[in-house]
Amino acid sequence: MPAAVSVVGRAFGERNVTITDDRHPGVRVLEVRDLHKTVAVGFRRRKVDILNGVDLEVDEGDVFGLLGPNGAGKTTTLKVVLGLMRPTSGSVTLGVHGLAELGYLPENPYFYDYLTGSEFLRFCARLFSLDAGQRDQRVTAILADVGLERAAAVQLRKYSKGMLQRIGIAQALINEPRFVLLDEPMTGLDPIGRVEVREIIQRLHERGTTVLFNSHILADVAALCTRIAIMRAGRVVWQGAVDEALSKSPGGDLESFFMDVVKS
Amino acid sequence: MKRVAAVAVNTFRETIRDRILGVIILFALAMIVASLWLASISLGQEDRMIKDFGLVAISLFGLIVAVFVAASLVRKEVEKRTVFIIFSKPVSRAEFIWGKFLGLAATMFTVLAGMTVFLFVLAWIVARSPSGSLLVAGLLIYLELLVVMAMTMLFSTMTSAILASVWGICVYAAGQLSHNVLSLSKLGHSGIAHAMSLAVFYLVPNLSAVDIRAAVVGEGAVSWTSLAAWSVYLLAYLVVALVVATLIFRRKEF
């Protein structure tokens, strides 16, 4: 495990999280310690605590489900991990080579309307400084992976919701990341779309990619995840293996365990 | 640098394909063609009328593209949350701002070059001799609009797209008028008015310094040394505006 570097109260530059450069295959890829985030809202700049001391550990190879009711702080936690938000205090330690080894799909993603799927993925590949040969190879492979080869030359404004979600996943995987964060990847999808996204996550797991995803669809979480964390009011209230959660569940399913933890 | 180029190419593609841009260009070309009608009723001033009216049309429609696209360029990415995708990749805020600006600058160049060449050919047909100064005037309008674009992008990092557009237009207007207002205030007796004019003159970019429309239609001569010096000043102004925009954008959370 790389040594955790405290980022409490630091002024951040271009990136808001401390990213370690040490690689320790087979161990932790994310460690979040006592993470707090306070924001000022409204005209009077009233302080609201969004995160109240989040502790989280994700190990390499995990398919990790981050659960919780709306407003629990799941998306904010992901944003702090990615550097899109600065933490008020606490530490985030990544066991991968920074953003170059990360992939991220935001919730309800919007892309550039007038670009084709292929152009958009090439653009994303260029942001990772891949050369032309690598770009061609990756774009072709990833389009096949998400089943969008035939829509490669179609402008994104003509894509359906499910196709946008798949191109979103494709852009998150364009750099062959070791660690992928997916924010509500199944939201708004029809049953076929959900199955397709589930299959993609399953394939990532089989390849050894670590996946962390937020979801309200507990059936998907139970089917895909090895470990879960349940958040409530800005902190993690339970964290462990899915099997452990199921064994402790009063109804024997993840839904009743989730309700039990959230309401206790 | 590769990432700046990637963002720039992407911005160019996205903006050049936007249908609204095509509509604006069509209007501009229609206005330039309309100058032929004005020329026909101007009694021996055909050449001058076409050049003058055509350059005004290029400035006006160029300003519309510069201000409205620049204001929405960064803002749209934040509001539509495309920035989540960009900044979850190894892209810095500075690379993003500069890439966006360069992409729009390329779009602007394409638009202005098209309109200027169209006017150049039209004026050539009417006057039966080419006027190279039209091309120089088109290039200097481009420089003016680059500065307005940079300022509008700076405003868009602080406020809404609509307010940023309004402020961008104000910068353009103030930049065209500040020199004249300063000259007029020297003639008056109000110290406060003169001090304010002086402040505006130093604060806003002096765009009128590179406006050679009068020289193009035969009124006055161009001082190339002065033009070069003012062009360097405007480029420096543009760089400072983008650096400030980057510094503000770096503090933003999404």
3D structure, described in words:
The complex is a heterodimer of chains A (264) and B (254). Chain A is an alpha/beta fold and 264 residues long. In chain A, α4 runs parallel beside α5. The two termini of chain A are 33 Å apart. Helices cover 33% and strands 25% of the residues of chain A. Chain A is globular. Chain B contains 10 helices and no strands. The longest helix of chain B has 35 residues. Chain B starts with a helix and ends with a helix. The chains are: A alpha/beta (264), B mainly alpha (254). At the A-B interface, β5 and α2 of A face α1 and α4 of B.
Concise overview:
Chain A has 264 residues and is α/β, with parallel strands linked by helices. Chain A is built from eight helices and nine strands. Chain A has a single domain (28-263), classed as P-loop containing nucleotide triphosphate hydrolases (Rossmann fold), CATH 3.40.50.
Say how many strands of chain A there are. 9
* Global Rg of chain B: 20 Å
Quickly count the helices of chain B: 10
Structural domain tally of chain A? 1
Most extensive interface: pair and counts?
A-B, 34 and 29 residues
Biggest sheet record of chain A: 6 strands, mixed
Helix content of chain B: over 70%
- In whole angstroms, how far apart are the ends of chain A? 33 Å
Estimated structural class of chain A: alpha/beta
- Helix-and-strand structural type of chain B: mainly alpha
**SSE arrangement of chain A, N to C:** EEEHEEHHHEHEHEEHH
H/E series of chain B: HHHHHHHHHH
Give the key terms.
heterodimer; A: alpha/beta; Rossmann fold; six-stranded mixed beta sheet; three-stranded antiparallel beta sheet; 8 helices; B: 254 residues; mainly alpha; 10 helices; 82% helix
Helices and strands in order:
The complex is a heterodimer of chains A (264) and B (254).
Chain A: E1 28-41, E2 46-59, E3 63-67, H1 74-82, E4 89-94, E5 102-105, H2 117-127, H3 132-145, H4 161-173, E6 179-183, H5 191-206, E7 210-214, H6 218-224, E8 227-232, E9 235-241, H7 242-248, H8 254-263
Parallel strand pairs in A: 3-7, 3-8, 5-6, 6-7
Antiparallel strand pairs in A: 1-2, 1-4, 8-9
Chain B: H1 2-16, H2 19-40, H3 46-79, H4 82-87, H5 93-127, H6 132-156, H7 161-187, H8 191-203, H9 213-216, H10 224-250
